[in-house]
Amino acid sequence: MERLWFITNPGSGSTTRAKCDALEIVFAERGLALVGRTEFPEQKMPAGADLDRDGVDTVVLFAGDGTINAALSALRAWEGSFLILPGGTMNLLAKSLHDTLDPQAIVQAAHDEATRIALPYVQAAGHRAFVGLILGPATAWFRAREAVRKGAFRRLFQAARVAWTRTFGGGIRISGISALAGRYQAVFVRPEKGELHVAAVDARDWSAIVQLGWEWLTGDWVAAHAVSESLTREFAARGKKPVLALFDGEPVPLAPGTPITAGLSRKAFIATRQGPG
Q1: 248 has a pLDDT exceeding 90
Q2: Which of 29, 176, 200, 203 has its CA 20 to 30 A from that of 167?
Q3: How many CA within 13 A on the CB side of residue 135?
Q4: 3-class DSSP state for residue 244?
Q5: Which residues are within 8 A (CB) of 107 and not within 5 positions of it... i.e. 6 or more apart?
Q6: Residue 277 confidence class, pLDDT cut points 50, 70, 90
Q7: Cis check: omega of the bond before 41, within 30 degrees of 0
Q8: Closest C-alpha to 189, from 142, 236, 144
Q9: Cα angle 188-191-192, degrees, rounded to a multiple of 5
Q10: Span 237-250, mean pLDDT?
Q11: Helix (H) or strand (E) run with residue 159 in it
C-alpha cells in the first residue's frame, strides 16, 4: 500500500470534509502518496485504466455501504487492492476486516502489516451486494429513507404512506428454498462463503411488528418470531412482475425468476484484523 486513490462522500454526516482531510494528513505522515481523490456522488468514480495509468495500488474507501458498493462495481475488473474504512452507519464490512473502527488507526495498521482476503457477496443480474440484499414490499421504504437524507419531509410522509400500504398489502414468494414457502414482507439475504443466509420476515400484525422492531434495535432481529431462516446457494423471486431489490441499500429492479446466487471476490480487500473475523 503505497500509492492511493481516496474515495469519499463528504456530504455524509459520518464522513465530513474535516474527517477526510484528517485522513489525508495520516497518509502524508505515513509516507503514502495520495494520487487522486473522488468525492462521490458529485464526481464520477475513477476507471480502472485511469488508476493503472497513475500507478495506483490501493483504493481507500471512506464512505457508507451505497458508495462502497458503487466503487466496487465500477472497479470490478481492476486488479488493485481496496482498504475499507468505517464511514457509514452499520460499517459491517469494516467490522469484518478490522479490529478497530478508528479510521486513522486502520490506515496505520494497514501500512505496517496487512493481509488481503476475499469477500463473499450476493449476486443477481450483474449486481453485487457485499453487505446484504433485501427483497419484498418492505423495500418501498427506501424512498422514505432518501427523503429523510435530503430533508424533504413532505415527500417523506408521502413515501411512508405508500411504503406502509405496500408492506401490508401483499408479500413476496420465493422459489428454491422449500423451508420458505409463504408470503413475506421482506427477505434479507446475507452473503457467506459459498452460500447465502436468507431470513424471511412475515410480520402482518402489530405485535409482530413491535417485536421485530425491538429485536432490530437490540441487534438480534432474526430472533424475532416473525423471521424464518434458511441457508442456500441459489434462489429466485416468484411471480410475473419485476421485483425491487436493494443491493447494499441501492435500488435495482429484478426480472421475476432472476437467479440470486452466492459469489466470492478475489483476494483484494486489505484486512488488519488479528485472528478469525
Answers
A1: no
A2: 176
A3: 30
A4: strand
A5: 23, 26, 27, 30, 32, 60, 83, 85
A6: very low
A7: yes
A8: 236
A9: 130
A10: 89
A11: helix 153-169
Q: How far apart are CA 2 and CA 65, in angstroms?
A: 25
Single-letter residue type at 206: W
Q: To the nearest whole number, what is the mean pLDDT of the chain?
A: 84
Residue-wise pLDDT for 162-171, tens only, equals 545 555 667 7
Q: What is the CA radius of gyration of the chain?
A: 20
C-alpha cell at 267: 483476494
Residue 120, strand partner residues: 264
- The residue type at 18: A
Distance CA 80, CA 269 (A): 9
Q: Which triple of cell numbers denotes residue 2?
A: 503505497
Cell numbers representing residue 8 in the block:
469519499
Q: Find cell 427483497 and name the residue.
A: 135
- Helix (H) or strand (E) segment spanning residue 206: helix 206-217
3-state secondary structure of 112: helix
Please say if the pLDDT value at position 60 is more than 60: yes
State yes or no: pLDDT of 251 exceeds 70.
Answer: yes
Calpha distance 152→120 (Å, rounded): 35
**Grid coordinates of 159:** 413515501
Residues facing 184 on adjacent strands: 172
